Amino acid sequence: MKKIYYFLLVLLLSSCISVKKYNEQLLTKIPVEKLKKDVNFTYKKLQKNHPDLYGFTSKENLDFKFDSLKFTIKSPLNPSEFYQKLAPLITEVQQGHLNLMIPAKRLTKKEIKNLEKQKGLFSRYNFILDGDKIFVKDNADKIENMDVGTEILEINEEKSSILIEKYKPYIASDGYNTSYEKYALSRRWPTFFTVENGILDSVKLKVKFNNEIKIFYLKREPVSKKEKKAEKIYTKKKEEQKTQDYNPNTRSYNRSIDFKTKDSSVVLMTIKTFSGVKSKSFYKESFQTLSDKKVKYLILDLRNNLGGSLAEIHDLYRYLGADKYPFITDIEVTDSASLLRADYFSSIPWLAKPLAAITYPFYAFGSLLSVKKKDGQILLRNNLFSSKKPRKNAFEGEIYVLINGSSFSASSIISSKLKGDGRAILVGEETGGANDGTVAGRYNTVKLPNSKILFPIGLMKISPNIVFTKTKKGVEPNIEMIESTTEILQKKDKVLHYVLEEISKKNSIEIK
């Protein structure tokens, strides 16, 4: 027993030392020549791993930009300062999944434990941007002075507009898309702010609501025992409906169906993320219900769905009455050993790593066998998503898909496929993800040798099996409807209202 305690003490002390050492390294200036070597290293790793590096930006252009960056480095920089130079260059590749990881201060276990006992500052809210203005979109806890529609003018006496302009260069969408940026910044500006300023106990805010300007301090609050207990009970109760994938952080379901007419002929299916959790059961049960109730119209809401599981969208596609298979084209990689560089062990728990090490040779062998060459490309044989037929109870009625600039990655792939097949009418705003495919799936996370910045690089180019538009843009809707900031804040949902009105006109159906 003494040996176990000794081992745990050593482990704890070494952990604290490594955190301290890492944080000291964040403040250490790196010589110019070493920074330039990191720039070269970054570009070489991109060329080795990324299968569509020049899909949106030419090689000549990227060569010039990487060379130009080195000329701007004239004095030693710490990792954070170097990130501010390199990250905007990575966005020039115009691939939305491609981002440097921000070199952020690490916390000790004690600091993490203390934070777990507190509520966040900005994480308790959702925001929406209008140009360089920040508005409170949701305030679930009904915190005073943060009403929905409140505009944040200043944070710690720094104008919000300046913050947004500062963080904007770190955001990339797929190709020439312009709709994604405001949604991504709405989500990510609090993270950029926290990394830049540290984890603060309070911030001084200057806000405007109903033309009244206020100045107050937004503070962290402790989570009471009563709140903890209530949350556990609430979460346990809601988890009984696992197929809907309950999210305790948002206190909402990632999947849901809602019948919009008294005769059940119109149903709204909302998918907030393709998490893959219990998705097969959800679609099996839901589409059986649609079949039993003889539903005529399906409205699939993919707005603000950032993507996720490729297997889930393929499974969903099989329930949508389409028959144009394969679902995706053969996946493109840079070389036959590409998947051997994937982050195989990173997502596996420590206790399971020994087993993962044993099974790795089978993974490696299978990866090598799946590679083929065709027309000068290196491709993976499309076994999992190839010629499968629609499900027996697949939906055969009319489909509307709701999309916006925050429909990204997997949600863009299925939207593009349904539109390309002529199986659905898309309504809303151009998606943030590209129409003709994206680079994601498996990643190879490299560490820059001198700045120690982590850089995940996608290894797989995944494209829907359609006739490509070659517009280098997102999936464009059949019917464009862009919601204003005012409409979003007022929860009017004119896009859904429009679709319901159109269905009602066609069949004289009474909407609830």
UniProtKB/TrEMBL annotation:
<dbReference type="GO" id="GO:0008236">
    <property type="term" value="F:serine-type peptidase activity"/>
</dbReference>
<feature type="domain" description="Tail specific protease">
    <location>
        <begin position="228"/>
        <end position="469"/>
    </location>
</feature>
<dbReference type="Pfam" id="PF03572">
    <property type="entry name" value="Peptidase_S41"/>
</dbReference>
<dbReference type="GO" id="GO:0030288">
    <property type="term" value="C:outer membrane-bounded periplasmic space"/>
</dbReference>
<keyword id="KW-0378">Hydrolase</keyword>
<protein>
    <submittedName>
        <fullName>C-terminal processing protease CtpA/Prc</fullName>
    </submittedName>
</protein>
<keyword id="KW-0645">Protease</keyword>
<dbReference type="GO" id="GO:0004175">
    <property type="term" value="F:endopeptidase activity"/>
</dbReference>
<dbReference type="GO" id="GO:0006508">
    <property type="term" value="P:proteolysis"/>
</dbReference>
<dbReference type="InterPro" id="IPR029045">
    <property type="entry name" value="ClpP/crotonase-like_dom_sf"/>
</dbReference>
<dbReference type="InterPro" id="IPR005151">
    <property type="entry name" value="Tail-specific_protease"/>
</dbReference>
<dbReference type="GO" id="GO:0007165">
    <property type="term" value="P:signal transduction"/>
</dbReference>
